[in-house]
Specification:
The protein is mainly β. It has one domain: Jelly Rolls (Sandwich), CATH 2.60.120.10. Helices cover about 10% and strands about 40% of the residues. It contains three helices and 14 strands. The strands form three sheets. The protein has a six-stranded antiparallel beta sheet with strand order 1-2-10-7-12-5, with no helix packed on it. A hairpin with a 2-residue loop joins strand 3 and strand 4. The longest helix has 6 residues.
Amino acid sequence: MKIINEPLPGLLLIKPDVYTDDRGFFLETWQKERYKEIGIEEEFVQDNWSRSTRGVLRGLHYQKEHPQGKLVSVRRGCIFDVAVDIRPDSPTFGEWYGEELSDENYLQLYIPPGFAHGFAVLSEVCDFDYKCTDYYRPGDEGGIKWIDETLNIDWKVENPIVSKKDQELNNFENLFVKKNSLTDGFKS
């Protein structure tokens, strides 16, 4: 396993070792000691699996009082995965990084606490896995509108399918810049 890139502080793009032969492949998706060696020391407490179809866009989500770190990967299909730095004291506050994750490239993205996260499905169907460092709490949800003009994310899909809830999210500037307070945003 190796770190391919650290595009924003704490954000890690990981390439696991993949062993292939004529029968198929094997890869280790998580091993506490090995991942600790590359800098992921948080304890994961919840695993999630979602399935989406082509053009579905989910996000950008975060938790306000109980931020989650996430180790994300794709079991089937392909997505464009996005993380936005919402840590107010970070030198990359307001910057985003996107990467294509698929069942063919086996890449994982570690998103530390303090990032908003979302993805768009590029394949017919996608099975998406993510490990979380804190529990999901419905009353603690926050989100940034996917089509935010300040962030200007190219989601790699035209006319995405977005939930009503995600369509009604606020934009980055209203959440984090204009208010100059994080009552609706991330708490450090």
